[in-house]
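Contributing new records

If you add data, match the layout below exactly. Sequence lines come first and carry their own label; structure lines follow with theirs. Keep one chain per record. Anything else will be rejected by the validation script.
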Amino acid sequence: MKTMRRLVGPIIWIIVLSFIFYGGTSFLLGTDKESLGVGRVFGKIVTFKEFRDAMRSVEVFMPQPDEAKWQYEDLENAAWQQVVLEREAAKEYIQVNDTEVRDEIKKLFGGDGAFNPEFYQQWVENNFKENARQFEERLRRFLAVQKLLDEHRKISTAFSEAEVDQAYANENTELNVEYASFDSEKEAADFHDAHAEISTWEKARDQTDSEINKLGPISVHTYMRILQIDQDAMSTLLAQSADQISSPIKTLSGFQLIRIISQENHAAEPLTGDERQAFQEKLATQASQSSFIDWWAALLKRASVEKFDLE
């Protein structure tokens, strides 16, 4: 195993998002239970064999740092992740041809430039109790998952000059805000009607156990991410004076009323030349990561992973 952990280093893949499923289950992977399943993914049964294979692939192709051993709970979650990704790769008809598999094998087992087929086959059989063909099919599925992930990571986004300038201003403008959060738009609207005047707002703010909270200093960029609002909504907020309370704003967790107490731009001067190019590349990376996270969240939702209680 230590040898394999060194060999597979070049093809390790890492997902940005943490992969967490709720509800612990211990899996009894005995051969007498092969006709049963351990759960469902995309509405279809996950057999013991499929889950066992996924778990083994995780151990082989996703070594822990410094050759540490996997904790079982982490290994189990990663195996479910692998099942989801392998099924999605198959659904999208992502192909890995024999040449690609062969080249990867040579890369893994031919570190000194000389590939020894006999050693490779014997090594696989001794270390993984499977023949070379089985190992290569495992590697093929792994490479297909790699391709799937790469497709959704490499999404290029172009930004106009105005968008670059706006994003730069967002990162360099700090806000101090007051806000009140509500579960429903009606609750927010009723509170707004009762506290639209700044004097009544501040009176409510100063009460014990007030519904009004303070936040800041915080960048516009970070605040937009917290609220999950777009640039148009943020621009409307920034246009408010300090004695205005916003109308109810839909956020990720409900609705908010927001008062912008202060805003200050700390950018020394506008972007030019290499700085602008570097900032555009940063924006593209952020957009790609955001797109990947959205895809991953949507994939998990579609997969609707269900783990059977086998205890």
